[in-house]
User: What shape does this take?
Amino acid sequence: MEAAPPLFSFGVVADVQYADAEDGYDFSGCQRRYYRQSLTLLRNAVEAWVAERPPLNFVLQLGDSIDGLNARRGESEGALARVLAVLRRLPVPVHHAWGNHELYNFSRARLAASGLSSRPAGAAAGPPAGACHAYHFSPALPFRVVLLDAYELSTLGREPDSPRYRQSLRLLREKNPNDNLNSPAGLQEPQFVEFNGGFGQAQLDWFNEVLKLSDENQEKVIVTGHLPIHPDASDGVSLAWDYQDALSVMHSHQCVVCFLAGHLHLGGYCLDSHGIHHLTLEGVIETPPESNAFGTIYVYKDKMILKGRGRVSDRVMHF
Assistant: This one.
């Protein structure tokens, strides 16, 4: 008997961090970064997704589409235009998480008016409408996808005289006394560095209400955002500031099956105590030119199957 087809399928890619620049290294000087080559790898991913049969329903771009290097070189707009031109070859919607590198290049207001503002018509926006890049949609019954804004609390991309900037800086300085706010040295909560951010209470309250409705409607929910929210799917530093609060919200409901993130270029995975799969996707930016780092996820009523390419491993995630 022929196996049942998936209910829907979607592409996943993280941390392209494109810049028209020679190769460099990460902050530790250990991991090589292929700035220019990352656009070629994204093209390869798009070509593979376009060839998928049956066609994909959408693609998730998990944040950091262009590198902060572009801001210093005055090339932010051009770099983003080149990345979006590649993604526009897809015949399906692309949903964009916002990461720290988007916010090194652009203000939140500019992102909201850019091609990275991906809330589809009819999708329910997060709080308060227009300010928070969070929304949810249903690709197929009984599933829902929730995209969270992991930098709603952040100093990045905000005017220094804005209330949210001051609130975020105050919280950061309370938790991180280091002169360099990007250093986790000596911190009890090492996620409190400036290149991370938080969801904030208003967004988590909204998220809780979304999950409450999904419980009532017996839906299964896939959650996504740039920052991981489980230490076992991360390195202990690359986490949302308020990851424990986000986990508490998810664990108070029955409906969440998976959390997809980027940010940590080495990737990560764990199945948590409540049966939620936490998948942190490997970053394109640190992928050698002869390899790749993307995947396609096929969703069935009882599982998700990840078909990975290059550095991204195949994985079966049962509900």
